[in-house]
Specification:
The model has no long low-confidence stretch (mean pLDDT about 80). A six-stranded mixed beta sheet has the order 2-1-6-5-4-3. Helix content is about 40%, strand content about 30%. The chain starts with 11 loop residues before the first helix and ends with a helix. Helix 2 runs antiparallel to helix 3. It has about 180 residues and is of the alpha+beta class.
Length: about 180
């Protein structure tokens, strides 16, 4: 079940309260006792919330889902990135490409790690050309995310570098 929360319901505590309420409604409706979430299911839920918060540009929720000691390892930078630089990069990207959205294709958890395969997409008028008449650009990304105490503490990311180079060429030369 995919739940989209209204913008006025922000913060981890509010989301937890809402989920508990929905779970209680399910108990009343089904008359059965729900099985508790496994650590792996809770970790996958944390990653789903983080992706949804990023898609909305909900920086307060992002801050509550990521540890202040968060570290990202990415082919886009030679050195690991801390939380402040990661957040700044997300804010800049969201401002430059406000309709950019990640769509989770697969999500798998084991222990304290979650692997997520996503497709990121956006539409941009500068990308309209013979090879791309609708101006939509898509790129695949695979992340391994480590969770501790319910918060994202580390991420190893890989993305489709061929697609990224294609994007640069399209924006630069209109090919």
């Amino acid at each position: 079940m995919n739940i989209t929360l209204p913008d006025n319901l922000k913060g981890q505590k509010m989301k937890n309260i809402l989920l508990i309420g929905l779970a209680m409604l399910g108990i009343v409706y089904a008359g059965t006792k729900p099985e508790p979430l496994t650590d792996e299911e809770a970790n996958k839920m944390t990653v789903r919330w983080a992706v949804n918060a990023l898609n909305r540009g909900d920086w307060e929720s992002m801050k509550s889902l990521y540890s202040p000691r968060f570290v990202q390892h990415s082919p886009a930078s030679q050195e690991p990135t801390g939380w402040e630089d990661y957040e700044l990069g997300c804010r800049i990207a969201h401002r430059k490409l406000p309709d950019f959205r990640y769509r989770i294709e697969d999500i798998i958890a084991e222990g304290d790690k979650v692997v997520v395969r996503m497709t990121g997409s956006f539409r941009h008028k500068s990308l309209v050309c013979n090879r791309n008449p609708d101006g939509v650009f898509e790129m695949t990304e695979i992340d391994i995310i480590r969770i501790a105490h319910g918060r994202i503490v580390e991420e190893w990311g890989e993305f489709d570098t061929a697609q990224a180079l294609k994007l640069v060429r399209m924006m630069k030369y209109g090919l």
